[in-house]
């Protein structure tokens, strides 16, 4: 079977990982890379022996390209996604799908209109812990969900790096807004949020947002997001998802319960073993599983685990969080 050619647009932290996986999977090959910063493309092209495209269109038109990873900043997803769709390429866009419901609609319409597949990289759906929790819920072990609590907190470096460009609701919150909706099985009807800004004032970003959600089935959700955790703590991500229902409870802990700890003379740290560890010189973990899923669903004409409507729904919730912060009132949905 011939390999599917891949192009990657946006070659920062995530673009480099996508590129690496496309070059390592047996079903795919990395054909072209493009970034607004040409030296990033040149460096990656040298590393993988692919084309350093001089423009978005050149990357999309590179011979053999069938799939495109869009890994640009959150607010720069629309143009590369719609251009890739217009060029007839299947699109895997990093989360969030876009930073407004309107932009989501533009991307979804472009994919539909040009008959290409569209998946958003909600990588937490490929984290085994969250998948097994979902299986327990589907198996009836929790019963009718009464309340959910999600947490996704990062260290301050993340807030300083990303804060000036996007919001914590779009960068971190969409992960759990999606997972909580996936677990509870319905949409939210009302969202109320509060934020605080003490450390990221120069970045013009909220340090933290706490959100309350009321769902169509009467369940209540609470989501904590922060990117100002102290640099010195051993895990860069502290995440939780706890679901309580009429029959039981399921709880996922990520970060402080990691089974691997490495210590040096001055400090200890807990390396990521779930999302993007490099093992035997290959990119492993949930990011790889997500990209494999994307390719196999295209090959086998199967539904993706995450549909464009799911990705849009997470953006609708992040948008509602911002509406609530602006007005100081709950934002109604639907
Ligand atoms: N799934 C996850 O766990 C996860 C983790 C981090 C980031 N992300 C998402 O991945 C995306 C990229 O994040 P990142 O941390 O890699 O960012 P980054 O800042 O490291 O890299 C972004 C790159 O995109 C390039 N770029 C921006 N606009 C462009 C355009 N129009 N055309 C071409 N290149 C352009 C920039 O020059 C930069 O090199 C974001 O949407 C982010 O939310 C997902």
Describe this structure in words.
The protein has 334 residues and is α/β, with parallel strands linked by helices. It folds into 2 domains: 4-121, Rossmann fold, CATH 3.40.50.720; 125-270 and 313-332, Dihydrodipicolinate Reductase, domain 2 (2-Layer Sandwich). The chain is built from 10 helices and 17 strands. It has a 7-stranded mixed β-sheet with strand order 12-11-7-10-9-8-17. A 6-stranded parallel β-sheet has the order 3-2-1-4-5-6, sandwiched between helices. Strands 13-14 form a two-stranded antiparallel ribbon. The model has no long low-confidence stretch (mean pLDDT 97). The structure holds nicotinamide-adenine-dinucleotide. Nicotinamide-adenine-dinucleotide binds next to helix 1 and helix 4.
Please give the structural blueprint.
Blueprint: E1 4-9, H1 13-24, E2 28-34, H2 38-48, E3 51-52, H3 56-61, E4 65-70, H4 78-86, E5 90-94, H5 101-113, E6 118-121, H6 128-138, E7 145-155, H7 156-162, H8 168-184, E8 188-196, E9 208-215, E10 220-229, E11 237-245, E12 249-254, E13 262-263, E14 268-269, E15 278-279, E16 282-283, H9 286-300, H10 308-327, E17 331-332
Parallel strand pairs: 1-2, 1-4, 2-3, 4-5, 5-6, 7-10
Antiparallel strand pairs: 7-11, 8-9, 8-17, 9-10, 11-12, 13-14, 15-16
Low-confidence stretches: none
Instruction: Please identify, by name, the CATH architecture of the largest domain.
Output: 2-Layer Sandwich
Query: What summary fits the major beta sheet?
Result: 7 strands, mixed
The figure for the number of domains is: 2
According to CATH, the homologous superfamily of the largest domain is Dihydrodipicolinate Reductase, domain 2
């Amino acid at each position: 079977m011939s390999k599917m050619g891949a192009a990657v647009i946006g070659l920062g932290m995530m673009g480099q990982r996508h590129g690496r996986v496309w070059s390592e999977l047996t079903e795919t090959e990395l054909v072209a890379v493009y970034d607004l910063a040409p030296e990033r493309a040149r460096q990656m092209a040298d590393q993988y022996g692919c084309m350093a495209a001089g423009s978005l269109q050149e990357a999309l038109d590179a011979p053999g390209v069938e799939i495109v990873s869009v890994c640009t900043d959150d607010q720069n997803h629309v143009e590369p996604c719609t251009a890739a769709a217009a060029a007839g390429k299947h699109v895997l866009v990093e989360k969030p799908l876009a930073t407004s419901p309107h932009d989501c609609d533009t991307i979804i319409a472009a994919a539909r209109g040009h008959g290409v597949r569209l998946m958003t990289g909600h990588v937490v759906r490929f984290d085994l812990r969250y998948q097994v929790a979902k299986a327990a819920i589907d198996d009836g072990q929790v019963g009718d969900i009464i309340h959910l609590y999600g947490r996704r907190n990062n260290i301050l470096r993340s807030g300083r790096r990303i804060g000036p460009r996007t919001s914590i609701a779009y960068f971190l919150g969409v992960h759990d807004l999606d997972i909580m909706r996936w677990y509870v099985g319905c949409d939210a009807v009302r969202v109320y949020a509060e934020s605080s800004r003490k450390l990221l004032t120069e970045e013009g970003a909220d340090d933290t947002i706490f959100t309350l959600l009321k769902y169509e089935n009467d369940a209540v959700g609470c989501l904590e997001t922060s990117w100002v955790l102290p640099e010195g703590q051993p895990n860069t991500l502290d995440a939780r998802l706890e679901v309580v229902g009429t029959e039981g409870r399921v709880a996922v802990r990520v970060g402080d319960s990691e089974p691997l700890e490495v210590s040096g003379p001055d400090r200890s740290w807990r390396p990521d073993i779930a999302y993007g560890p490099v093992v035997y010189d290959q990119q492993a973990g949930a990011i790889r599983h997500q990209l494999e899923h994307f390719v196999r669903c295209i090959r086998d004409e199967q539904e993706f685990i995450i549909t464009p409507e799911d990705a849009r729904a997470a953006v609708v919730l992040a948008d509602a969080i911002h509406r609530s912060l602006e007005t100081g009132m709950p934002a109604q949905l639907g």
